[in-house]
Amino acid sequence: MVLNFGEKQDMKAPGPITGVEDLKRWKEEGLRSISPEVVKVTVGMATCGLASGAQSVFDALAEELGKASPEAVVAKTGCMGFCEMEPIVEVRHPGRPRVIYREMTGEKARKLVAGILDGDVNKQWALATVDESSNGSPPATIEGIPRLCDLPFYQKQKKITLARCGQIDPENLAEYIAAGGYSALWQAVRGKTSDEIIAEIERSGLRGRGGAGFPTGRKWRFTRGAAGDRKFVVCNADEGDPGAYMDRSLLEGDPFAILEGMTIGAYAIGAREGFIYVRDEYPLAIEKLEKAVVQAWACGLLGGNIMGTDFSFDVRLIRGGGAFVCGEETALIASIEGRPGEPRQRPPFPAEKGLWGKPTNINNVETWATVPWILAHGADEYGGLGTETSKGTKVFSVVGKINNTGLIEVPMGITLREIVYDIGDGIPGGKKFKAIQTGGPSGGCIPEELLDLPVDYESLTRAGAIMGSGGMIVMDEETCMVDVARYFLEFLKEESCGKCAPCREGIDRALEILQRICRGKGEEDDIQTLEAIGRMMQGFALCALGATASNPVLSTIRHFRDEYQAHIQDGRCPAGVCRELIRYRIDREKCNGCTLCVKVCPQQAITGEKKEAHVVNEARCVKCGMCYEVCKQGAIEKE
Amino acid sequence: MDMPRTDNPSEEYVGDGPTLVEILQEVQRKEGYLPRMTLSRLSRKLDVPLSRLYALATFYRSFSLTPTGRHLISVCLGTACHVRGGQTVSNRLEQLLAVRTGDTTADRRFTLESVRCVGCCSLGPVVRVGNETFARVRQDKLAGILARFQ
What we know:
By secondary structure, chain A is an alpha/beta fold. Helices cover 39% and strands 13% of the residues of chain A. Chain A has a 5-stranded mixed sheet, with helices on one face.
């Protein structure tokens, strides 16, 4: 039996939630759904799971189990965070430890089902086991399979905001409630004043997780105190930093958390209307949110008389138009108001004058999703994690040249080294670490010497980067840092709204210089000029996009000046990336004449007979790198 | 379609009408692009200057003023994909399709665009064709991927 929300119509719906008994009933329903008395197989079906082939895994499981054991349940869940291992499947026999399988395919799924029936655990595909022990007894394990919490990837993590992602069906309200959801809202609307709630958020030390790190409680207090009887709350789900997908996973894996957080915020601030502005490029997130909103409405968790009180709150989903700059709060407001996303002068800040001139509280997805936890567990418990100025945990996407790519949640204060080597398991292919880039196009690159820095807002800023929304891109010896700076400026040139001269002209001029340098036509005072442009933009740009646009350039100049100098003075790209400065050559000693590269070259630039050393014709070579990718002998050299 | 109230920020927002961007998104979804005539008609119906609709159409990436192909190919050039060779995949696609990024093939089969981050950063380089996402794309697999979309 495949659990789709639509197909649950025949199950008796637990009804609207207006009393403690109702919540209890929903919770029991949810627990039965999370842990049924039958075999349950769950597939990770967030965007990365799907991109890795999870649909065919799901279909195979549904088909095979449907034939062999129709009472077993096949369910979907969001992202567990270990994206490198997708597609991920979890098998749960009642009373036994859950087994999590990695890198599944349709074919393996069929064998898995056979194993479920005949008792073969198929250890060779198992990633880990999970057993939540109750009544104090030690958790059960299966010999030969490690426990999930012992895996290096998970050991140093602390899941708070991400706790439910990958554990529940995101479309199932009952499971959300069983996993602790809506208890915070209940306590809030039923027994707390706005002041108490705002004070709790202030005490927790929660800072905006979108990148700026502004204290959330303080922002709520400003908005609450602003003049006006009509106020708005907004969720900024325009996650645009390339390399960052924390918000996407939350929206796809635990959409109710955002709704609950916003409802609590609206109650505290005195707003009755909310908007969730989601990037156009996240169709699955939009779909999950829509389903969550529909269910919340049906159960009195959104709309009029929430949870039986006289508090009303409604939420509208707005799709972005495809513009990075709309992640900037005033540009986002302009976009909702039906104008191009051009930022405006501040003050006045949105808390005072936002959407349609009304007080508006804008927070990031991760911030909203953390609010229920803080209220349910208390400010002190949240504040007990992290550092003095950066409390709590943060979700990061660890991507690029790293073995364990994925989404992690760690307490603030953990070091970059722990993230890269303990959690991330280092650089693939035995290559050497070069830099970790944080903060997206507003951030910077941190070199090896600074890997022992604790991850908190202030330390990262001092190092020339920023915390940003949480994207962490690991780079190795084959990454050219000048090319990275050029890449970010190209991105920003496309995304700049063009309204203010410092950003519009500054980015253009800096990009021209970097492009010249990457072509080997760098000049003596280029670095000086880039630094001057950077300082100008920092001081005079209208919004943070422009003011931080020079961070990637300035941080790479600061930490990797020698690479700039190699490009400018020697016309050399040490990392072997800048196409005009490299050439591909075949090492005659290593070449075994297999003709793989000859066949694969799109320009027919390689000649050579079988069993004879091949040669690259440099005049025809366009440096695409295909030969380098396919050669099994390591005979292709970049120099 | 409901008409939105005017955009003057000091006026009361009704709360029910779609935003201008949402209206245009509806047209983009139905027609595959924003035809000039539709924009003119909208301008008259909504009492919004055509230049204003043009500003929105050219500012936001979701919109195209020219017809797009049957299949939209989006190559991710986000940082993680870039670091894993996204640019070379993009160049190869330009070669295979004989178009530049942003253009549509002569037979209107494909439109090739680059996007900055679809949020599958662990699986780079990533290419989306329509609603299907392809992960860990290698240049030599591209022809095979394209052949699946007629």
